[in-house]
Amino acid sequence: MDTIRFGCRRAGLPVAFSGGYNPRLKLSICQPLSVGMTGLGEYFDLELTETIAIDEYINKLNNSLPAGIRILKAVSIPTNSKSLQAIINTAIYRIKMKFTNNIDPEKIITDFTNREKIEVTRKRRNKKDRIVNLEPMLYNIDICSPYKWDFTVSTGSSGNVRPSEIIRALVERYENIKQVPPINIERRGMFVRRENGLFQPFSNKIIGR
To answer: What is the pLDDT of residue 139?
Structure first.
């Protein structure tokens, strides 16, 4: 978040600030990643004080960002539009799995997804722990390779699945599956899930189901 903030200032963009004694850039990162995880398609909302061409905005900001972080696409939306946080409800995580012995991935995934409940204890800072059922928020599991599995899950205010909880649920139920570090988890993208499929934010082009 600081990297984007400093990049906007270096680029000289007409960014908007909040009021008060400690004004802040009107910037909101959508579903921030946990420390150690990587992401291929991250989003943020940024409010400007004047209109600027999309190409100019992208070029100016990219020229002010460090290597490894690039703006790939931007969309201009009305100021009264819903935030990304409010419309994005699905994420795909690719997890590089670890096993103690050879396993049958198909068999484990079939057993795991056919369970009526997949409960884990969610740790909460300064709040009492609570039991969360992941089953209705786990939409799909794809095997990319024996050691790389893609999990399509709910994310956002309506229901949020943490990839660390998926791993913990698997480890607790299958003795041959091992815990993995955050660096083994990559968020492949975030999407708007509707009845007819998955869409990129502010796009009507279907990209999956």
So the answer is: 95
141 shares its domain with 56: no
Check whether residue 55 and residue 96 sit in a common domain.
no
Cα–Cα dist 174/169, whole Å: 9
Distance set, CA 195 to CA 116, 160, 190 (Å): 22, 19, 16
Q: Indicate whether 93 and 45 sit together in one domain.
A: no
Q: Would you give the end-to-end CA distance of the chain in angstroms?
A: 31
The two three-digit tokens of residue 36, written as one number: 């150690």
Tally of CB atoms within 10 A around 55: 9
pLDDT digits (tens, 9 = 90+) for 39-85: 998 999 999 999 999 999 999 999 999 998 899 999 998 888 888 88
Taking 70 as the threshold, does the pLDDT of residue 151 lie above it?
Answer: yes
Residues 184, 180: Cα–Cα separation, whole Å: 6
Domain boundary among 46, 64, 87: 87
Dihedral in degrees, nearest 10, Cα atoms 104, 108, 114, 120 = -170
CB atoms within 10 A of CB 40: 12
139 and 71 inside one domain:
no
Of the CA atoms within 13 Å of residue 185, those in its CB half-sphere come to: 20
State the CATH number of the domain containing residue 127.
3.30.70
**Domain match, 78 and 108 both:** no
Q: Coil, helix or strand for 78?
A: coil
Say if residue 115's pLDDT is above 70.
yes
